[in-house]
Write a structure and sequence with these properties.
This protein is mainly α. The chain is built from 3 helices and no strands. Helix content is about 65%, strand content about 0%.
Amino acid sequence: MGKWHGKEHIQGGRASVRRAVYLPAVVATRFNPDIKAKYDQLVSTGKCKKLAFTAVMRKLIVMANALLRDGRKWTETIA
C-alpha cells in the first residue's frame, strides 16, 4: 500500500460537467425524496458528505442520459 494519508479528491473527467451538476445534486438531496434517501443512506453508512454528493451527481447524470436515450420527459412518481 502507499503512504498517502490525506483526503481523496475528484480528479479527471470533465470539470465543467461537475460544476454544472453539483448544485442540482445539492437541491435534489433536499427536495427529491428518492435522492435524499440515497444520500442519507450513504452518509449513515459512514461515507463522507462530499462522496455522497458525488454519488448523487452520478445518479442524476445516469437518469438524464436514460431520459434522453428513451426520448422521455421527467415525470414525478407520486407514492
